[in-house]
Structures are given as C-alpha cells and as structure tokens.
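Input structure tokens:
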C-alpha cells in the first residue's frame, strides 16, 4: 500500500531501517537461506547449509541429507514476509531461530558455528493440526527404561555426556530442574501447538501425583538418535515411538545454562502416515523358560 502522508512514510522507513539494523547476522542469514530454499536455488542454499544438514517436514518425513531434500523438492513451511514472526535464542555455538505464522505454522531452524562460519544444521517443521485418528490408552504401568536408563545412542563428547545425563534425570524425576524457565514459548508439537507454561505444567504434574490410582508411564522411548556436541550446547534429532499414539521426530537443544544443563528448545513433529503404537506388558516379551 502506498503511503499518502509524508510523515508516515518517513516513520515507516525509519522503523524498517531500525528493524534491519536490529537483526543479527544469523537472522539475516536465515532469511537469505529461506529465500534460496523457496526458490530452489541449491547453489545459494548450500553455501549456508551444514555438511550434515537434515530436515523434518510437517508430515514427519525425514530427509537425512541435503541431496535428499533437494531431490524431493522440499520447501520451507514458513517463508518470509510481514506476517512471519522470527524468534532467536543463542546458546554459545548453537543458535535457535524460529519462524512462525500465527499459531499453526512453525519452523525451527538450528544453526551451528563451524570453523568456516555459521551453518544451518537441521530444520524441524510443524503444522499444528487435529488428530484424525484415535489414540490408545495405556492400562498398565510402563517403566521409564528407555530413555531413563538405556538408549540406542552412545554419547562421545563431554557435552553430549552431560546433556544425556541431564535429560535422563529430566525424564525420570528431575523435570523441574532440567527444563529451562524460558522454554514456555517454544516447546511445540503437531497435535498440541505451543506448550503450557512451565509453572502450569509443574502444577499438572503435582496434581497427577496426588491421584492414588494413577499409572506410572515412562517418557517416550528413543528408537534412533543423532547428536552434535558444541561444548556448552548439544543438538539432538531423535525418532521416538509413543505409548498409544503415533511416533514423532524430536529436535532439541540441551545447554549449560548458568552451570546447569537444561532442555532449552524442544520440537516434536508426529509422523502422519505411521501407525498408532501401543506398548505391551514386559511379561509378553520375556524369554520363554526352558526346563
């Protein structure tokens, strides 16, 4: 829309200039990369994509390499424009950029600092929707063995080891101390949208503990995982089956925040065309006894 009043035009120009100056190097790179991906400009995009780049699309399809993503013609769920909200959080050599449109479209971009500069390591897209299927209630206790005790994943670096220890503590009994206080706006999943606040979630957990008949059901296990250690911050991409629901891809940042390793970002994209998965009692998978 053209501006009629001269003073309004000047104010608008100043505001735009101030916004451009306020953008960080990473946010500017993220916008340029998003434009390149929208245009299918592989040459321009690859200058900013990490060598280990991967992408989870809104339907839960996982593209493990740049080549796979371009061969499939994947496009960003959230583009650029006045209606796009951009959020940035820094964790040393890891930077999280969220691009969102309203309460239905979210794209988590996980940038990392390499010797050659900042690169986009992974993308996790989420289109919030209603379930078109029924979940299956779990009617017996399911102990948190995986991920609380064991995982099909071996941490290598010191950061990975500290992050994994903290996450296992979180999924066992340490949720309150292992989830960052400012996580509230960013924990997002396909069928729930944005998370309730940490305070409200702690209240819900306490209320559940007061129920003498409640079942003990462990956290969603990990079937596959990749991790990247950047010292005081770790990025994880994991495939997690659920108890009575469809599996999902999770992308998380665990960071050393004021001396405490905490979950700082958490994205969950359910796999649209996967089956609902239900647990079985431990006795059902125990080896048969022999005389």
């Amino acid at each position: 829309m053209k501006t009629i009043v001269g003073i309004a035009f000047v104010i608008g120009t100043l505001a735009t200039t101030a916004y451009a100056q306020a953008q960080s190097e990473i946010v500017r790179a993220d916008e340029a990369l998003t434009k390149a991906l929208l245009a299918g400009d592989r040459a321009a995009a690859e200058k900013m994509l990490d060598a280990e780049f991967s992408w989870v699309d809104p339907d839960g399809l996982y593209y493990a390499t740049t080549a796979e993503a371009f061969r499939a013609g994947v496009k960003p769920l959230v583009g650029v424009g006045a209606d796009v909200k951009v959020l940035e959080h820094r964790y040393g050599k890891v930077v999280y950029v969220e691009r969102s449109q309203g309460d239905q479209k979210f794209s988590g971009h996980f940038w990392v600092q390499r010797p050659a500069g900042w690169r986009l390591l992974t993308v996790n897209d989420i289109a919030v929707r209603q379930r078109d299927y029924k979940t299956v209630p779990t009617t017996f206790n399911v102990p948190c063995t995986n991920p609380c005790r064991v995982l099909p994943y071996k941490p290598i670096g010191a950061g990975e080891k500290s992050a994994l220890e903290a996450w296992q503590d979180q999924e066992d009994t340490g949720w309150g101390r292992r989830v960052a206080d400012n996580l509230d706006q960013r924990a997002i999943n396909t069928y729930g949208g944005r998370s309730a606040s940490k305070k409200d979630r702690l209240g819900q957990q306490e209320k559940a503990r007061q129920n003498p008949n409640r079942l003990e059901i462990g956290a969603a296990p990990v079937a596959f995982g990749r991790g990247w250690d950047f010292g005081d911050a770790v990025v994880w991409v994991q495939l997690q089956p659920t108890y009575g629901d469809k599996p999902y891809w999770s992308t998380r940042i665990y960071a050393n925040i004021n001396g405490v390793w905490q979950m700082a970002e958490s994205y969950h994209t359910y796999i649209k065309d996967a089956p609902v998965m239900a647990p079985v009692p431990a006795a059902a998978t125990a080896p048969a006894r022999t005389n």
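The domain at 23-127 is CATH 3.10.450.50 (Nuclear Transport Factor 2; Chain: A,). DSSP finds seven helices and twelve strands in the chain.
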